[in-house]
Amino acid sequence: MRRDQSAAGRQSVRSPRRWVAAVFLSLFLLGSVGTMASADDYDSTMSGHPLRIIAYVLHPVGVALDYLIFRPAHWLASQEPVKSLVGHED
Asked: Is there a domain that residue 18 lies in?
């Protein structure tokens, strides 16, 4: 390829590569389109496990602690006077 060719000439050489890349990208994205998610069937033998029963009880407690204590504490630590003291980074 000669150096004195115009930009339009160089563009026409690259154009087929871009077109092929665009086609392959389109086919890849079309093939990776998700399907509808479906939940697992309920298995009553798995719901009686002792750790699952404890998790049923403790999960709401953890969510309540998150909203009542940990999120407000994080918000407080992200405010400027406290932020520089505790080393909070954005």
From this structure: yes
Q: Whose CA is closest to 13, among 28, 2, 22?
A: 2
Cα angle 78, 82, 85; round to 5: 115
- Domain total in the chain: 2
Q: Please, how many CA atoms are within 13 Å of residue 79, restricted to the half-sphere of its CB?
A: 7
**DSSP letter (8 states) at residue 79:** S
Do 53 and 88 have their domain in common?
yes
As a whole number of angstroms, the distance between CA 61 and CA 72 comes to 16
Domain extent, residue 84, equals 46-90
> What digits encode the pLDDT tens for the residues 20-58?
888 888 877 776 666 666 777 777 776 778 888 899 899
Structural domain contains residue 38: no
Q: pTM above the 0.70 mark?
A: no
How many C-beta atoms lie closer than 10 Å to residue 76's C-beta? 13
Check whether residue 26 and residue 1 sit in a common domain: yes
